[in-house]
Amino acid sequence: MARADTLCSQSLLEAGERPLERPLGGEPGDVKTQFVTREGTYRLMTLSEYSRPNRVGYQTQGQTPPQVRVSLVTLPDQGERICFNHGRELYVYVYKGIKKAADLSKPLEKKVYKGTNPTCHDFNVASASNESVSLLIGFSTGQIQLIDPIKKELNKLFNEERLIDKSRVTCLRWVPGSRSLFLAAHASGQLYVYNEELPCGSAAPHYQPFKAGEGFSVSTCKTKSTRNPLFRWLLGTGSAINELAFSPNGSQLAIVSQDGLLRVFQYDSMELLGTARSYFGGLLCVAWSGDGRLIAVGGEDDLVTVYSMEQKRVIGRAQGHRSWVASVAFDWFLEAESCYRLGSVGHDTQLCLWELPEDALTPSKPRVKRRSDPLQLVGTPACPRLDECPVLEPLVCKKIAHERLTALVFRPDCIITACQDGYVYTWARPPS
C-alpha cells in the first residue's frame, strides 16, 4: 500500500524542538515550537498569543468545561476579529496575526456568564462591516445569544425559556450569504433553522411534518404567524449533532453526529446526497476542501476519514492521532491540482498534517460485501475496512501543547490552534 509521503512530490524534514519558556498547561516538558514542511518552517509566534487578559487558567468546578472554539471574521478595511470561549467566559479581540503583538488588555468584548457556559459561536460574514458585525453564541443550557461586539447595541436571545430545546447547543452556523438565517445544532440530535429577525413563541412549538428521508425528518411549526424555529431537522435516533459545515459554494451541508455518521445534504432541497461512517465511535468534526470535492471528518476512532462527493464513498483514512480528533481542516491556501493538504488536532495534543494526492481520487471499484444486517456498514463504500482503502501516514505529527487541542484554522499567512486551557496560538507560515 502506497504511503502519502512517497506519493507526494517531496518528503518532509524533521522539525526542530525546544522546551517552551512557559508550559502550555499540564505537566512541563518538550513541545514543538516549530515544524518543517516541504514549503519551509512554520514557527510559533509567542507574541501573537490570545487568552484571558490575566493569563490565569480558568478553574472549573465539577463538570468538564466546553471545548474551546475559535471564530474569525475579516472586516472590509479594519482587519480581522477573533472570538474564543473558555469556561464561562467569552472574548472578542482584534486579531493582529503575525504582524503585531496581541494586546490582551483591550478586548472588544468580554462576557462572563452565570449558570451556563458558552459552547460555540459564529460571525456573520455576509453582513460584516467596519461598523457592525453579528456574532451568535450558543450555550450549554440551550439558549442562543446574538450580539454585536462593535456596535454593542444588539442583544437578542433565542430559546430563552428553553421551550424549543433544553439540550446543549453544539454548533452554530449562519446560512452562507444570508444576513438573518442561521442553523443551531443541539445535543438532542435536532437541528433548527432560525431567522434572527423573528421572535420565538411564548409556548413550546408544535410541529407538522414537512419532509422525510432515510434516517432524517424535517418539520415546520404550526403557527398562525411565522415564528422561530422555521424548521426542525431530526437526524437518526437522536444522537448529538457535533458539528456542521457548509460547502464552499454554500449549497451543501455536511453534518457529523455522535452516532458515527456523516450526512451530506443539498441544503435548499433538503435531499440526502451521501453518508459515511466512522470506524467506531462518534464523529466530532467536519471540513470541506476548497473545491468542494472532498469532506474530511474526525472523531473517536482516532482517524481522519476522507469522503469523495463525486464518488460517494470513503477514499482514504489518515492514521496518526493516538486519541480523539477534535478539529480537522483543509488548507485551502495550499490546494493544488496535484495534491490536497489536510490538517487535524486532537486530544493527544498533536498537530498532524497529511497530503492527499490527486491519484487517490481516481474512481475504483471497492469490494462490497452483502450482509443480512442493513445497518452494518463496515465493509461498504460508506465505511470500508482498513485494508480496503488507502491509509495515509502523517507528513507532520508533532506535540504542540500539554492540554488537549480543540481548534485548527488555516489562514493565508498562518495557522491558528487552540487548546483546552484557553490559549490560542498563531504559527507563522514559511516566508514566500
UniProtKB/TrEMBL annotation:
Presence of keyword Repeat: yes
Lineage: superkingdom: Eukaryota
Pfam families: WD40
Keywords for this protein: Repeat, WD repeat
InterPro entries referenced in this protein's UniProt entry, alphabetically: WD40/YVTN_repeat-like_dom_sf, WD40_repeat_dom_sf, WD40_rpt, WD_repeat_creC_regulators
WD repeats: 234-275
Protein name, as recorded: WD repeat-containing protein 20
Protein source organism: Tenebrio molitor
Upper classification of the organism: Eukaryota, Metazoa, Ecdysozoa, Arthropoda, Hexapoda
